[in-house]
Specification:
By secondary structure, this protein is α+β, with helices and mostly antiparallel strands. It contains 2 helices and 3 strands; from the N terminus they run H-E-E-E-H. The longest helix has 28 residues.
């Protein structure tokens, strides 16, 4: 995150996005997506950073479940095709 902010302030990039994990105090790991871009004044100088962070833990878990479900469905179709031959 610090590297992203440094790149935005220096002008090396005009916007950025990163994903990172952090451990909650209850021990569970959470996945976050942060997006940021520089804020400029009327002279074009960087005066700040606009950033937002979103917890995508549940979204990622559902995506992994969907991938697993699709794999199992494909395997079932393959097995059914072999059984018919």
């Amino acid at each position: 995150m610090q590297e992203l902010i440094a790149n935005l302030i220096s002008g090396h990039c005009s916007n950025g996005q990163i994903e990172y994990r952090t451990q909650h105090k209850n021990g569970a790991w959470q996945l976050f997506r942060a997006s940021a871009r520089p804020l400029h004044d009327e002279m074009g100088r960087t005066t700040g950073i606009i950033a937002s962070v979103r917890d995508i833990t549940e979204q990622q878990r559902l995506q992994q479940q969907l991938i697993q479900s699709e794999r199992l469905a494909a395997m079932g179709q393959m097995i059914a095709g072999v059984a018919m031959n």
